[in-house]
Structures are given as structure tokens and as C-alpha cells.
Specification:
This protein is mainly alpha-helical. Helices cover 29% and strands 7% of the residues. The chain is built from three helices and two strands. The longest helix has 14 residues.
Length: 136
């Protein structure tokens, strides 16, 4: 983060939005402040309370059969080719960096639980509680 802070801004604040980098920095800060990996923090504070059992930074081996390969177009031919295989692909193993800006794998059911919470103004519809630190 120290080196990142030395880089010039790509845009003036308010001029354009650059998605991703700030989320990566936030993930690092969360891990440092909590003393947990970013994934552990997310699992404890968000995924667990919302019942999001299939959201993580990689897909475990026993669930890889549920993951399709990633296809992308060949820009010269227009043909869709496998860009990332399931077995041995980047989703099949933990990443070197848990990216807050776009590293999670999930399911439709888990997305649904997350978006229901957002639509319910931050409250978990099942029990009326807000995901967050356990109450004391």
C-alpha cells in the first residue's frame, strides 16, 4: 500500500470511478486490523450469518463438478474457446491474494441471500438481524 500511495492518480477525484483497486486495499486493511485473512473475516461477518455456504476465494475440489469452464471469444475468429479450465484452473485453488475487487466465487443461491439482505436495508430477512460482529 505504501508503494501504491506513491503512484499518481489516474483521474481527479470525482472525475471518473476506477473499480477494483480501492476494494483490494480495503481487503488488506480489514485483514490487518482484524488479524484474520480477508476470507475468514467475510465468512464470519457476512457469509456465515447470511447462510452463504458456497462463497469463497476458490471452489473446493469436492464442488468443482458444479463449476463450468470459462469461455471467451477469440477476437480474430469470433469462436468461443475455453479460457480457464475447471480442473487446474484459477478457481480450483486458493489465490495468492484474496482480492476484494473481484476474487470471489459464488452461487446463485448465495447471491440471492446477499441481495435480499441489501434489499432489506442491510438486515437478514430470515431473522431480522444485520450481518456484523456478534452481539455481546
Amino acid at each position: 500500500m505504501r508503494r501504491l500511495g506513491t503512484l499518481p492518480l489516474m483521474y481527479q477525484p470525482g472525475e471518473r470511478w476506477l473499480y477494483n483497486v480501492s476494494d483490494d486495499v480495503l481487503g488488506v486493511l480489514v485483514a490487518r486490523v482484524t488479524g484474520q485473512s480477508f476470507e475468514e473475516f467475510l465468512r464470519e461477518r457476512i457469509f456465515g450469518p447470511l447462510g452463504m455456504k458456497d462463497t469463497a476465494f476458490h471452489v473446493p475440489a469436492d464442488k468443482l463438478d458444479r463449476l463450468p469452464p470459462l469461455y471467451a471469444p477469440d477476437w480474430q475468429t469470433g469462436e468461443f474457446l475455453v479460457e480457464d479450465e475447471v480442473e487446474g484452473g484459477h478457481h480450483s485453488r486458493p489465490p495468492a491474494f484474496q482480492s476484494g475487487g473481484g476474487g470471489l466465487d459464488s452461487t446463485v443461491d448465495d447471491y440471492h441471500a446477499y441481495f435480499r439482505m441489501l434489499l432489506n436495508h442491510g438486515m437478514h430477512a430470515a431473522n431480522g438481524s444485520c450481518p456484523g460482529p456478534p452481539s455481546s
